[in-house]
Amino acid sequence: EAQVTQNPRYLITVTGKKLTVTCSQNMNHEYMSWYRQDPGLGLRQIYYSMNVEVTDKGDVPEGYKVSRKEKRNFPLILESPSPNQTSLYFCASSLWGVANEQFFGPGTRLTVL
Amino acid sequence: AQSVTQLDSHVSVSEGTPVLLRCNYSSSYSPSLFWYVQHPNKGLQLLLKYTSAATLVKGINGFEAEFKKSETSFHLTKPSAHMSDAAEYFCVVSDREAAGNKLTFGGGTRVLVKP
Question: Residues 4..33 of A with a Cβ closer than 8 Å to B: which?
């Protein structure tokens, strides 16, 4: 089944404790991206990647890192999480880029205490 | 730069009546525009997209949207609402000239369908 998977689905952590949210797609998509969803703000793009070893900042990259060492995986890293990073996070992928349909993962709900 | 404004944060309709969700965008010249739907506790699913072909775009589940360049609008409509349409809807813009490979989402419109 073609899909985007994220792990974990739910995470409660404390300020400053490094964490990684994994994202994987099995559709051989070139473009992958991360978003955070906050009430009233819609989804805001954190980082995106056009291909392996090619990443770029979205609109809200502060406090986040990403890497794209393999085509299928695009982990989101929070080196020192803070409470303002409490949010719902979505990973998405598409075949070529922003003009194509984005396929979204199920979401990761992160709470930073 | 590109931006999207969804004019209503909440819309309430009765089952069987029309639905109208309003979206205005800002971009330089030739945007791609999308509507996505998010059902409770789910990821997002594409409803329809506009990429400079026909200005009236038909999507899944009876939804359609009309691109009006002069009004910079991309409103989403459905003639007859169904209970299963209760969800949050997002208007999305991408404009390679204005913003490279970024996507910009509107704030979302939550639709309530009354029986």
Answer: 4, 31, 33
Q: How far apart are CA A64 and CA B30, in angstroms?
A: 31
CA distance A107 to chain B (A): 6
pLDDT in tens, B14-49: 999 999 999 999 877 678 899 999 998 888 999 999
Per-residue model confidence as pLDDT tens digits over B80-103: 999 999 999 999 998 776 667 788
Return the structure tokens found at A69.
């060492």
Report the first-to-last Cα separation within chain A, whole angstroms: 36
Which residues, at least 6 apart from B41, have a Cβ–Cβ distance to it below 8 Å?
Answer: none
A106 neighbourhood in chain B, CB within 8 Å: 42-43
* Closest listed residue to residue A27, CA positions, set A4, A49, A47: A4
Nearest 10 degrees: CA dihedral of A54, A60, A66, A71? -50
Q: What are the pLDDT digits (tens) for A42-58? A: 899 999 999 999 999 99
Q: Rounded to whole angstroms, what are the CA distances from A72 to A31, A41, A97, B74?
A: 10, 28, 15, 33
- Identity of the residue numbered B88: E
- Angle, CA of B4, B8 and B13, to the nearest 5°: 135
Confidence category of residue A88, pLDDT binned at 50, 70, 90? very high
> Considering all CA atoms of chain B, what is the largest pairwise distance in Å, rounded to the nearest integer?
45
CA distance B39 to B34: 17
**Which residue of chain A comes nearest to B91, CA vs CA?**
A42
